């Protein structure tokens, strides 16, 4: 493992939940509510969606048919459906991969609502890569900061690209730092746990260069401000019981505004 990959691993491992805290968690702090991931009817116009759409359009033109899009860690499918918007769409089929079966149900329902042929793969990446197949466009939004061993994850994203005519590509969207770094003061306040610095998008780019010799296109942009998660959501993330919701709500008032900077990484095999 190279220096960049080891740095990513150390930073991600250091941000795990300590065993003595996790053992007493009243609920799973990692499971997401599918209702929070229902894709909008009209995807936002973002650099990530535009990048994926551009690759899909080139692939569709090359084959005189629609492109295939693979969405890794798909949630409800916002990344995949963003590549297919607006009509007329260059996308002929979308496939979603997710470790939560209920997320895949949301993805499939959204694809049916759009009359878009689709498939789903239940599993974690890169273990599920063999079942996912190869596609013209591979998109992966806000998943990298859930990964500790980054080289095989990124290698599987690149390996899932179908390079007809050298056209296919990968589009990754992430934040400049860990998406839960804004809660670091609360970990110290409620658990006396001091979080180490987060891995950043620069660290991810360094791993790509070191492990694959890939120099991705990097675009930093400001996304729409997210509504703050409510105190009950934060309480579960902090592994605290429900009777601490009021204390968490009071603590949230003192936190600075959440950062809204995002990054789009685009590369081809």
From TrEMBL:
For whether the record's keyword set contains Lyase, the answer is: no
Q: Start and end of every Methyltransferase domain?
A: 69-163
Q: What is its EC number?
A: 2.1.-.-
**Keyword annotations from UniProtKB, A to Z:** Methyltransferase, S-adenosyl-L-methionine, Transferase
Query: From what superkingdom does this record's organism come?
Result: Bacteria
Q: Select a single GO molecular function from the record's annotations and give it.
A: methyltransferase activity
Coiled-coil region(s) at which residues? none
* Organism of origin: Pseudonocardia alni subsp. carboxydivorans
| Residue span of region Disordered | 1-47
Q: Is Cell wall biogenesis/degradation included in the keywords of this UniProt record? A: no
Q: Tell me the Gene Ontology biological-process terms attached to this UniProt entry.
A: methylation
Pfam families with a match to the protein in the record = Methyltransf_25
Composition bias type Basic and acidic residues, residue spans = 1-35
Main EC class of this protein? transferase
Q: What is this protein called?
A: Class I SAM-dependent methyltransferase
């Amino acid at each position: 493992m190279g220096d960049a990959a080891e740095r990513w691993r150390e930073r991600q491992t250091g941000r795990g939940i300590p065993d003595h805290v996790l053992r007493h968690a009243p609920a799973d702090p990692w499971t997401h509510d599918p209702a929070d991931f229902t894709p909008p009817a009209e995807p936002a116009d973002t650099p990530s969606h535009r990048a994926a759409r551009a690759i899909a359009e080139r692939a569709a033109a090359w084959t005189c048919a629609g492109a295939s899009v693979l969405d890794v860690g798909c949630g409800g499918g916002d990344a995949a459906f963003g590549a297919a918007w607006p009509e007329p769409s260059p996308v002929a089929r979308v496939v979603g991969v997710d470790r939560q079966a209920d997320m895949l149900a949301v993805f499939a329902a959204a694809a049916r609502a759009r009359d878009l042929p689709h498939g789903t793969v239940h599993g974690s990446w890169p273990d599920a890569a063999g079942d996912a197949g190869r596609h013209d466009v591979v998109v992966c939004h806000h998943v990298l900061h859930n990964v500790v061993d980054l080289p095989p994850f990124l290698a599987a994203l690149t390996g899932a690209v179908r390079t007809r005519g050298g056209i296919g590509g990968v589009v990754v969207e992430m934040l400049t730092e860990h998406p839960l770094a804004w809660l670091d003061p609360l970990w110290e306040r409620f658990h006396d746990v001091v979080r180490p610095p987060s891995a950043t998008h620069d660290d991810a780019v360094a791993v790509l260069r070191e492990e694959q010799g890939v120099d991705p296109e990097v675009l930093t942009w400001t996304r729409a401000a997210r509504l703050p998660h409510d105190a009950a959501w934060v309480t579960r993330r902090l592994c605290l019981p429900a009777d601490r919701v009021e204390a968490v709500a009071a603590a949230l008032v003192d936190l600075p505004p959440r950062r809204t900077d995002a990054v789009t990484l685009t590369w081809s095999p």
